[in-house]
UniProtKB/TrEMBL annotation:
This is Cadherin-12. It is found in: Cell membrane. GO terms for cellular component: adherens junction; catenin complex. Keywords: Calcium, Cell adhesion, Cell membrane, Glycoprotein, Membrane, Metal-binding, Repeat, Signal, Transmembrane, Transmembrane helix.
Length: 676
C-alpha cells in the first residue's frame, strides 16, 4: 500500500436459510470503531510492560460488523455464520472466543473454525437482537491476534402472533337520524410481530356483522354509519362485529374480532299525541281543593328530555280556573286537580280543552305545530247531601262582666246548601260550656247570658255551637264562638304583700324605710295606676310620711331622726291605696313599724323580739332568766361549752335531738330560738 502499516482484518461469513455471503472488513476502512483503537493501544501498553525494547508501530484497526440473522422459533441448532481472522492460515493456531449476550446459552462458536451456531429456539418478541463480542487469540503466545470486536445477531421475525384488540369492550352512542358517514368509534388492534419485516404486522379491518348500517375503514379501524335515518324508536341498539387480519388479509395470516355496542340516542322527532278525543271524569261536590279528578296522557315516542311536556287547560266561558292540570314528572301524565270548591246546586258540568306541548322542540325534524296536541275534558259534578254551613267560619263577641242575666250576646246563622233546604236547629255543646254561662235559642241561634259573669274567674269563653238538620240524614256542623268578658272596676286595690317594716335607731329624717307596691285583680284597658296616701287627719303625722313615686310604687319615709327603743318600740301607720278605675276604688292597710337596734349594715337580727319584750315591760336580762327557767322545767339541756353557735342574725329551727338543745320561746306566731 506504500506505507509501513500492517493490514489486518476479520472475515465474516453469514449464513441464512437462502443466502451465503462472505464479507471481508479491513482495518483501514475509515470510521473504525473506537474500541478497536483502544484494543491496539492495549497491546502496545502490554508489550512495554513486558520489557520489550522494540516499540511496535501503532496499528490502525477498524472493525465494522454486519448483522447476523437467525429465524425465530427454529428448534434445530444450526450454523448462522463464521468469523475468521486474516491471521488464520488454517493451522489452528488461532482460538476464537465468543462473549456477550446469549454467549454459551443461545449461541456458541467453534474455537477452531470460528463457526457460530444456535443452541436453542429463539423468540423475537422476547428478545429481538443480541450484542456479542468476538476475539481471536494466538494459541502459542496466548496473546490477542486481533482486538476484541462487537457484532449483532438479529432474530428474524416470523408470523407467530395473533393481532389483539386494545381497550375492549367498545361502547358507543350516536344520535338517531344522524347522516351517513357519522363516526361511531375507532377500534385499534396491535400485533406483536415485527412491523418492519414483511407483512407479518400489517393489519387490515373489515365488518363481519353490522352491515348495511355500518362500515369500517380498512386501515384505520374507524367505524362509521352507512345507513341514513336510523330510527331509535324502531331499533335502539346494534352490535357491530369488526375483524382484524394481519398479512394484509392474505391467506395464512391470523385474525381476531371484537364487538362494538352502538346505541342510538334520542332526538325530538316525535310530538305528543292524545289517544282519545274526549276524556270524561266525575267528582263529588264535596271534594276538597287539591283532589285529583283524573289523569290524561299524550303519547310521545321520544324519551328523556325530548318526551317532557307541559299540559294546560282552557276553561269554558261559564267558569274560570275551577280546575288546573299539572305534569307528573315521572309518568309525563297530565293530572287534573280541583282548584276551587264545587257546588252541585250552582254548576253540574264542566267542558274544557286540554293541550300537551313538548318542552323542547327541534324544528330540524318536525314543524313547530307538530310538537303539540289537543283533546277535550268533560267533568261531571255529583250531588252530595251536605251538612249545614255557617255564614262565618268563627264568631267573636264581647260582653261586660256585669251584664245582666238574659242579655243578648250575639247570633249565629247556618243554612242547608242542598236543594232540599232542610230546617236547622241550634244547640251549645255542653263540653264547651261546663259552667252553663250561656244559652242559645234553638230556632234562630241567638246566644244570651245565662248566669252572672266574672272576668277575674274566666275572661274568655270558647263555646261550640252545633247546627243540625231536622230531617233526612240529620247532618250537622259546628262553629266556635269566642266570647270575651270585658273588665269593670269591681275589685279594690291592695298592698302587694304583708309588709313588716322596721326602723333602725339612728335613722335620719328623709330616709326610706319601706318600698310599697300594690295589686288589683282588675285589668283596665290602659293598665293599672295606683295612688298611695296616708289617712287624712287634722294633724300631719310627725313621724312618717308616704311618698308616691308615680310608678305604682310608694315609699315610707322617716320625718324625724330621734327614734329610740326606750321611747317607743312600735308605730302604727295606715296606708290608703286607690286605683284609677271609674268609679275609683280604694283600700286602707295598717302597717306596724318596729323600732330595732340594727347592725352596722342596717340588718335587724332579733326580728323585733327584743322590741316586743321591751314593749311588754321586761328587760332583756329578765327575759333570758325566764327562758332559762323554762329550759330547766321542760328538761332541755344547755348546750355544751365546746359547741360553736350559729352565725348571729340567722334563723334556726330547734330539733328534738338532745345534742343540739337550745332555748326555745314562742310568742304567738313568732318562734325564736336563742342560743346560749
Amino acid at each position: 500500500m506504500g506505507n509501513a502499516e500492517e493490514m489486518h482484518g476479520w472475515t465474516v461469513k453469514m449464513s441464512t436459510p437462502s443466502v451465503l455471503a462472505v464479507v471481508t472488513v479491513f482495518s483501514m476502512i475509515p470510521g473504525g470503531v473506537l474500541s478497536d483503537m483502544r484494543g491496539a493501544q492495549g497491546l502496545e501498553t502490554q508489550q512495554l510492560a513486558q520489557g520489550s525494547t522494540h516499540l511496535h508501530r501503532r496499528l490502525r484497526r477498524g472493525w465494522i460488523w454486519k448483522q447476523l440473522f437467525v429465524p425465530e422459533e427454529d428448534p434445530t441448532p444450526r450454523v448462522i455464520g463464521q468469523l475468521k481472522s486474516d491471521s488464520d492460515r488454517g493451522e489452528f493456531s488461532i482460538k476464537y472466543v465468543l462473549s456477550g449476550e446469549g454467549a454459551g446459552d443461545a449461541f456458541e462458536i467453534d474455537e477452531y473454525s470460528g463457526e457460530i451456531r444456535t443452541l436453542k429456539k429463539l423468540d423475537r418478541e422476547e428478545k429481538a437482537f443480541y450484542i456479542l463480542q468476538a476475539q481471536a487469540i494466538n494459541r502459542r503466545s496466548n496473546e490477542p491476534e486481533e482486538p476484541q470486536s462487537e457484532f449483532i445477531i438479529k432474530v428474524q421475525d416470523i408470523n407467530d402472533n395473533v393481532p389483539q384488540f386494545q381497550n375492549e369492550p367498545y361502547v358507543s352512542s350516536i344520535p338517531e337520524m344522524c347522516p351517513t358517514g357519522t363516526t361511531v368509534a375507532q377500534v385499534t388492534a396491535t400485533d406483536a410481530d415485527d412491523p418492519m419485516f414483511g407483512n407479518n404486522a400489517k393489519l387490515i379491518y373489515s365488518i363481519l356483522q353490522g352491515e348495511p348500517y355500518f362500515s369500517v375503514e380498512p386501515k384505520t379501524g374507524i367505524v362509521v354509519t352507512s345507513w341514513p335515518n336510523m330510527d331509535r324508536e324502531a331499533r335502539e341498539q346494534y352490535l357491530v362485529v369488526v375483524q382484524v387480519k394481519d398479512m394484509l388479509g392474505l391467506s395464512g395470516g391470523y385474525s381476531s374480532s371484537t364487538t362494538v355496542t352502538v346505541s342510538l340516542t334520542d332526538v325530538n322527532d316525535n310530538g305528543p299525541t292524545f289517544q282519545h278525543h274526549l276524556y270524561t271524569f266525575a267528582v263529588p261536590e264535596d271534594a276538597q281543593v287539591g283532589t285529583t279528578v283524573g289523569r290524561i296522557m299524550a303519547e310521545d315516542g321520544d324519551v328523556g328530555i325530548n318526551a317532557k311536556m307541559t299540559y294546560s287547560l282552557e276553561d269554558d266561558l261559564e267558569e274560570s280556573s275551577t280546575f288546573i292540570i299539572e305534569t307528573d314528572p315521572t309518568t309525563q301524565e297530565g293530572v287534573v286537580l280541583l282548584a276551587k270548591p264545587l257546588d252541585y246546586e250552582s254548576k253540574r258540568r264542566f267542558v274544557m280543552a286540554a293541550e300537551a306541548v313538548n318542552d323542547h322542540v327541534d324544528t330540524r325534524f318536525l314543524n313547530l305545530d307538530e310538537f303539540s296536541d289537543r283533546t277535550t275534558l268533560k267533568i261531571v259534578v255529583e250531588d252530595v247531601d251536605e251538612p249545614p254551613v255557617f255564614l262565618s267560619p268563627a264568631y267573636e263577641w264581647k260582653v261586660p262582666e256585669n251584664a245582666a242575666v238574659g242579655s243578648e250576646v250575639g247570633s249565629v246563622s247556618a243554612r242547608d246548601t242542598d236543594t232540599v233546604n232542610n230546617p236547622i236547629r241550634y244547640s251549645i255543646d255542653k263540653r264547651s260550656d261546663a259552667t252553663k254561662a250561656f244559652k242559645i235559642d234553638p230556632n234562630n241561634g241567638t246566644i244570651t247570658v245565662a248566669k252572672a259573669l266574672d272576668r277575674e274567674t274566666s275572661n274568655w269563653h270558647n263555646v261550640t255551637v252545633e247546627a243540625k238538620e231536622t230531617s233526612q240524614n240529620h247532618l250537622s256542623s259546628s262553629v266556635v264562638v269566642f266570647i270575651k268578658v270585658l273588665d269593670i272596676n269591681d275589685n279594690v286595690p291592695r298592698l302587694a304583700r304583708d309588709y313588716q317594716p322596721y326602723i333602725c335607731e339612728g335613722t335620719q329624717a328623709g330616709e326610706l324605710i319601706q318600698l310599697l307596691s300594690a295589686v288589683d285583680p282588675d285589668d283596665p284597658v290602659e293598665g293599672h295606676h295606683f295612688y298611695f296616701s296616708m289617712v287624712p287627719e287634722k294633724h300631719i303625722n310627725p313621724n312618717f310620711t308616704i311618698r308616691d313615686n308615680q310608678d305604682n310604687t310608694a315609699g315610707i319615709v322617716a320625718r324625724r331622726s330621734t327614734f329610740t327603743r326606750k321611747d317607743r318600740t312600735q308605730y302604727v301607720l295606715p296606708v290608703v291605696v286607690a286605683d284609677s278605675g271609674s268609679p275609683a276604688l280604694s283600700s286602707t292597710s295598717t302597717l306596724t313599724i318596729t323600732v330595732c337596734s340594727c347592725q352596722p349594715a342596717g340588718h335587724c337580727p332579733t326580728g323585733g323580739v327584743e322590741a316586743l319584750a321591751l314593749s311588754m315591760g321586761l328587760s332583756l336580762q329578765t327575759l333570758l332568766g325566764i327562758l332559762i327557767c323554762l329550759v330547766t322545767l321542760t328538761g332541755k339541756q344547755v348546750l355544751p361549752s365546746n359547741f360553736i353557735p350559729p352565725q348571729p342574725g340567722l334563723s334556726y329551727i330547734i330539733t328534738s335531738s338532745r345534742e343540739y338543745a337550745g332555748v326555745y320561746l314562742e310568742f304567738g306566731l313568732l318562734d325564736v330560738l336563742i342560743w346560749l
